[in-house]
Automatic annotation (TrEMBL):
Positions of the GFO/IDH/MocA-like oxidoreductase domain: 142-256
Domain of life the protein comes from: Bacteria
Name of a matching Pfam family: GFO_IDH_MocA
Organism of provenance: Marivivens donghaensis
Taxonomic lineage from the root: Bacteria, Pseudomonadati, Pseudomonadota, Alphaproteobacteria, Rhodobacterales
Xref: PANTHER family: BILIVERDIN REDUCTASE A (PTHR43377)
This protein's name: Gfo/Idh/MocA family oxidoreductase
Domain Gfo/Idh/MocA-like oxidoreductase N-terminal: 3-130
InterPro entries given in the database record: Gfo/Idh/MocA-like_OxRdtase_N, Gfo/Idh/MocA_Oxidoreductases, GFO_IDH_MocA-like_dom, NAD(P)-bd_dom_sf
Length: 334
């Protein structure tokens, strides 16, 4: 199934996806683009044209694109600074379009609820582009965990680190008015989501200690949380360290230990003295393929409800840090 897409935001991530999407067997028709950067528009348009397709139309604003093209496209992919996710998602849904939305879906739980309300009113679909939610490797372990293959889940720990402070100097990601936060709000959200995806359990409680190292956004932090079933979770975040970006999520079971890269690049299973390592990585076109399947009626592996839960978790993590790491209870679930 090939779909007609509008692109709102043509930055590096969008361009990376475009190279894969335009070369796939069921390449989407990229109908229209909008971005505030002329160079980003040109790069994206060049990718489309070099694939042999017609050049997409270009609009100055998302509002203009939606008004002119809502009857000519099936969906939009939104890859803008985080602050605009809610506005553009709601506008696209109101125009009767399906939405593939970069993470985080929203910056607060209230914003997330507004997106769910707009989605329900439109009868359309929202899929949030978390790689852990769309990873075949992580999904295979999720199914094995859910089937009880490794026994009872006892504890979860995880970490994510990146030279985020150096890497994004001068970028909108380090402007809280555009990003909604710092490293933990951005890269760190993948770790929060991977816990949900691997365990199929909701967070029930969170206590956090967030540090900013003199900046006006968080760069380091520790989170103690609990999942359904009173499962303890310990998460560590560092966005101001040596070059690179890596992660690991470790799940301790009665009969095994499972380690997973939060982007689905690899997984490691230890049972007794035997260790099995699996390579994965995001399958070519996995994000778009999953989106198309959901539009066609398949279960949504990265739903708006899940992102609402993550938005509430982030709200409470910030509140907890301001309240000397007080333990706060969540009201939403996945």
């Amino acid at each position: 199934m090939s779909i007609r897409l509008g692109i709102i935001g043509c930055g590096l991530k969008a361009a990376s996806y475009a190279r894969t999407w335009t070369g796939s067997a069921d390449a989407p028709q990229i109908v229209a683009l909008t971005d505030t950067s002329a160079s980003s528009i040109k790069r994206y348009s060049d990718i489309v044209v070099q694939s042999g397709a017609d050049a997409p139309k270009v609009y100055e604003t998302a509002e203009a694109l939606l008004a002119a093209e809502k009857d000519n496209i099936d969906a939009v992919y939104i890859s803008t600074p985080h602050i605009y996710h809610q506005t553009y998602a709601k506008a696209a849904l109101a125009a009767g379009l399906h939405v593939l939305l970069e993470k985080p879906m929203a910056l607060t739980a209230d914003e997330a609820r507004e997106i769910l309300t707009a989605r329900d009113a439109s009868g359309r679909t929202v899929v949030v582009a978390y790689q852990s939610s769309l990873s075949p490797l992580i999904d295979s372990y999720r199914q094995r965990i859910a089937a009880g293959e490794f026994g009872e889940l006892l504890s979860v720990s995880g970490e994510v680190w990146e030279h985020w402070q150096e890497r994004y100097v001068g970028n909108w990601k380090q402007v809280p008015e555009l990003s909604g936060g710092g490293f933990i709000c951005d890269t760190g959200s993948h770790l929060f989501n991977a816990v949900l995806q691997a365990t199929s359990r909701s967070y029930t409680q969170v206590a956090a200690n967030l540090g900013n190292r003199g900046k006006n956004y968080e760069l380091v932090g520790g989170v103690l949380a609990r999942l359904d079933g009173d499962i303890p979770v310990t998460l560590s975040f560092c966005g101001d360290t040596t070059q690179g970006c890596e992660s690991a999520l470790t799940l301790y079971f009665e009969n095994a230990i499972v380690k997973i890269d939060i982007w689905g690049k690899w997984a490691e299973l230890r049972q007794g003295n035997q260790t099995i390592r699996n390579a994965g990585g995001e399958a070519d076109g996995a994000v778009l393929d999953s989106f198309i399947k959901v539009i066609g009626g398949a279960p949504n592996p990265s739903s708006a409800e899940q992102s609402l839960h993550l938005a509430e978790l982030w709200d409470l993590a910030k509140q907890s840090s301001e309240q000397n790491s007080a333990a706060l209870a969540l009201t939403s679930s996945i």
